[in-house]
Amino acid sequence: MQAAAKIANARARKHSRRLCWRAVKNALVKAKVVSSRPSTRYAKQAGRELQRKYAFKKIPVKNPYKAPLGAILVYGGRGAGHVEIRTRKGFVSDFANPRPSKRPLIGVYVTPKMMASHRGKGVKRSI
Q1: Is residue 123 part of a domain?
Q2: What range defines the domain where residue 107 resides?
């Protein structure tokens, strides 16, 4: 997941182009975190698809700043929602931002590999 965050960060722009889910999908595919390109259209649908199709796990984190590095954060609200990846410097999708989205957080999602590598330690920011 760190690789996906690095890829998204390298491609990020200064300002949003309203293509957050597309940017995150591209990063996940390029980093080989997922076996195929996610097919949902809207960012707020990302969590369900990541869980159902790619075995991601939703973790009990309510504060975006406490999400583990590399985690996928999915937000709801009006319109398509928003999705971003947690990085060392903040959050990234189609743009990089030191602050998380102001939209309501639907969930924080991690891969089974992230969960397994930190079993017994809890899912911490060190991921």
Answers
A1: no
A2: 2-117
Q: How far apart are CA 43 and CA 54, in angstroms?
A: 16
**DSSP code string of 52-77:** HHH--EEE---SGGGSPTT-EEEE-S
Phi, psi of 45 (to 5 degrees): -90, -5
87 occurs within a structural domain:
yes
Name the pTM for this structure.
Answer: 0.88
Cβ–Cβ < 8 Å for 105, 64: yes
Instruction: Please give the tally of structural domains in the chain.
Output: 1
Q: What is the pLDDT of residues 16-60, one digit of tens each?
A: 888 999 999 999 999 999 999 999 999 999 999 999 999 999 999
CATH number at residue 31: 3.90.1720.10
Cα(55)–Cα(48) distance, rounded to whole angstroms?
A: 10
Contact between residue 123 and residue 111 where contact means Cβ atoms under 8 Å apart:
no
